[in-house]
Amino acid sequence: MARRAPKKQARRNGGGGIPGWIWLLIGLLVGALVVAVMFLRGQWDLPDGTLPTPNPEARAPAATEEEPVAQKPAAEPRKPKYEFFDVLRDKEFVIPDAELNAQAQAEANRPADAAVPANADAVRYLIQAGAFRSSADAEALKARIALTGEVARVESAEIAGGTIYRVRLGPYPNAGSLAQAKQALGSHGIDAVAIRAQ
């Protein structure tokens, strides 16, 4: 005859403990109680000043006949990408595009055997493609210019107590070659300034 197992062996996991679903229910109730307390205390409200509060009593000012309506100021011209004029030396002058094109046209129309002006040797034509506070930015522009087929260099200058890194091309022998190089840079999206140095 087979022996029956005693009742102690039939009970497992401590037998008289609290079932798991009751622990789950207790946890949910405690969580809901914490949320309710925080909500009632205002812990979840947004801090003051994060959102604007509208003023329902605010009114737009009424325009009167005596007071002229302010006109919009004319749109300011777009500032250049680089501040060239702050970093040029004393004897360097920016050549406006119209003047550069006129000089290049005059050189092209001049006969080959015409006399070269006496001060032509003293004039140097340069292109400045950028001026930066960081040498890394200047080197990046120099590399971008190299992809266009032009050769640029980075020159450093002490200005207003800081170092400026200028990306320059040239010198060019005349205004015609300067205009061609400037136009080549412009066709690749690189803004540059023509400079006459003496």
Automatic annotation (TrEMBL):
<protein>
    <recommendedName>
        <fullName>SPOR domain-containing protein</fullName>
    </recommendedName>
</protein>
<keyword id="KW-0472">Membrane</keyword>
<dbReference type="GO" id="GO:0032153">
    <property type="term" value="C:cell division site"/>
</dbReference>
<feature type="region of interest" description="Disordered">
    <location>
        <begin position="48"/>
        <end position="76"/>
    </location>
</feature>
<dbReference type="GO" id="GO:0042834">
    <property type="term" value="F:peptidoglycan binding"/>
</dbReference>
<dbReference type="Pfam" id="PF05036">
    <property type="entry name" value="SPOR"/>
</dbReference>
<keyword id="KW-0812">Transmembrane</keyword>
<dbReference type="GO" id="GO:0030428">
    <property type="term" value="C:cell septum"/>
</dbReference>
<feature type="domain" description="SPOR">
    <location>
        <begin position="119"/>
        <end position="198"/>
    </location>
</feature>
<keyword id="KW-1133">Transmembrane helix</keyword>
<feature type="transmembrane region" description="Helical">
    <location>
        <begin position="21"/>
        <end position="40"/>
    </location>
</feature>
<dbReference type="InterPro" id="IPR007730">
    <property type="entry name" value="SPOR-like_dom"/>
</dbReference>
<dbReference type="GO" id="GO:0032506">
    <property type="term" value="P:cytokinetic process"/>
</dbReference>
<dbReference type="InterPro" id="IPR036680">
    <property type="entry name" value="SPOR-like_sf"/>
</dbReference>
<dbReference type="InterPro" id="IPR052521">
    <property type="entry name" value="Cell_div_SPOR-domain"/>
</dbReference>
